[in-house]
Amino acid sequence: MADNNKVEFINIKVSEIAPNPEQPRKFFSEEAQEELTNSIKENGLLQPVVVRPVEGAKVPYMLIAGERRWRSCQAAGLEVIPAKVVEGATEEEAYVLSIAENVNRADMTIMEEAGAYADLKAAGWTPVKIAKQFGKTETHITWRLGLLTLRPEVAEMVDQGQIKNNLAWHIAQLNPANQMVAAMRYVRGDFDSEAEAQHFANGLKMMEQQTSLTNEKAPTAEEQAKQKKAKAKAKDGLGKAEEVLIPLLEELAEKKPEDLAVILGDDLARHLRVVGRLYAKVQMVRNLLSKAQGFQRAMAEEFNKAAVEVQQEASAAKKTEAAAKPEAAETEKPVDKPAAKTAKPAPKPATRTATATKPAARRTPAKKAEATAK
User: Is 67 a catalytic residue?
Assistant: First the structure.
């Protein structure tokens, strides 16, 4: 705020104050609001609201900071409240004061905070300047700005606390479709921890950055042999750990500290050193395996999506083919073939009756006919 701005404290009618339409906070907890209202009814308004005069407006003052207090004063039935009036403040200065009022409050949502920083960035502020203004680190500001790529449904899950801040940033790096996949799988409890969900999101991001797995070349026989050998070696190593190391650690874990001090004696320091190294390696490998699992799940998700797309394409092709058949039948009508004659049944032998017709005259042999003629 500029040094030449005039500041004074006066009492103002509640009806003479209007809320700021550019207020960075959009969500107000009804429960917290009711608590504040009850407190103001009991004790009055202890902290003045901050306003600035607005010339030519229907309402002479506009809020810079303290909208929750102003709302509760209205609900408590107060007609006049104390106010800090800042004259000569520009729109930008008023907005900065409004952000400063709310940015460190626990009930300001992370998406509201990100939106406020985005407005300042649009006005030409750098993340460094924003961080300095509000006492934050540059990384804090950058991460908040990174959340603005979240699709609305996922942003709402973040605002409602269903998705934590760090995971939200990892999800925000994905394309909109994968954002929904990662968010829904986390919310429905598919992961044992937030870290697993982050590794899954990172796996999806890696899948987005590389070509489709369906376009990759199949491994050569030599590569397959190496993979098989590496798998067998890893399996053998885990087998030895299960047979030797884990039973040893379980045996030590059953002892009391005073017993171990006597049993191990001078070797106690060595055990402590070795187990410390094991712990560090186990933590590192566990994190690595968790990342690998995230990538594996992302690969499975990618293959499942590809399979669905193939099925949809095949189904669409069948529908197109089926729709084209009637058209082909209309354009190429076959020549009508004469109907095939049905074979007539053989005539049955006539049965003789009393009224039967006379038999036909017998034919006379040719020679006999000639002799008769002579």
Answer: yes
